[in-house]
Amino acid sequence: NQLALGYTGALDIPKDRGSVEIQPAVIYHQVLATDLIYRGKRWRAGASAIHDRPSQENPFTSEWTRPVYSSATLGTVFVDVLLASSWMATIQHMGVSGGEIREEGKWASDDRASITSRYPYQEATEVGLEWNRPTTRSRKLKVKTSYMWSDKNAFQLWRLEGRLDLNTDWSLQSELHMVEARPLDSANRNDIAEFRNNDRLAVGVGYAF
Predict the structure, then answer these.
(1) Phi/psi at 171 (nearest 5 deg)?
(2) What CA–CA distance (Å, rounded) separates 130 from 82?
(3) Which of 16, 75, 121, 175 sees the fewest Cβ atoms within 10 Å?
(4) Which residues contact 74 (CB under 8 A, 6 or more apart)?
(5) SS3 of 192, please?
(6) What tens-digit pLDDT sequence spans the chain (209 residues)?
(7) SS3 content of the chain, % helix, strand, coil (to 5)
(8) Which residues lie below 8 Å from residue 208, measured CB to CB, with a gap of 6+?
(9) What's this model's pTM, rounded to 2 decimal places?
(10) How far apart are CA 117 and CA 193, in angstroms?
(11) How many CA atoms lie within 13 Å of 65's alpha carbon, on the beta-carbon side?
């Protein structure tokens, strides 16, 4: 299932302000999936396919502007290679065919993207490198960097993540994300572009209760 957002609103032109009311509703999907994975001694590869057919039932009354979903087919492929005892390299790709969202109602417009998101992006490729090694009997250090890009959705995302397990309960964690993306529009709806001006660095401490 998926949460669909219906909305209605009013614009006060003299004050240049708007009032919007949002109502969520659950939309059910029929999903058919298949996976294929092959494992070698130092590598593995896999492919997945998903067909997603959303219900066309309308849970909103006429005053709400609502999203209408189309059927979609998703495909992914990946390859993981163990380069050395502590080093792993990976490459993966995902593409979506279909899955468009259009809006119906008073406030619907073909010039902007729907306020409801369905998939994080429609197409992307990612390469990554991971180092994972115990430092002592009770401590383990994991560092991972990855670069993701999309020609269809016009974004680039670089990530650097680290985690040091001090013991079974405590850990130190950090992550750095840097984003470059084209602004959102009706033809380019993706979650990455929403954070295009939000490069971030986070450092934290974790405790397992």
Answers:
(1) -150, 155
(2) 10
(3) 16
(4) 48, 49, 50, 51, 52, 94, 95, 96, 97, 99, 119
(5) helix
(6) 778 888 887 655 555 667 788 888 888 999 999 999 999 999 999 999 999 999 888 888 888 899 899 999 999 999 999 998 899 999 999 999 998 888 888 888 877 777 787 888 999 999 999 999 887 777 889 999 999 999 999 999 999 999 999 888 899 999 999 999 888 776 777 888 877 778 999 999 999 88
(7) 0, 65, 35
(8) 168, 169, 170, 171
(9) 0.81
(10) 12
(11) 19
Query: Is 175 within 8 Å of 199 (Cβ atoms)?
Result: no
In single-letter form, the type of residue at position 179 comes to V
DSSP 90-151: EEEEEEEEE--EEEESTT--TTS--SS--SS-SEEEEEEEEEEEESSSS-EEEEEEEEEEET
> Residue 173 corresponds to which tokens in the numbers above?
């964690």
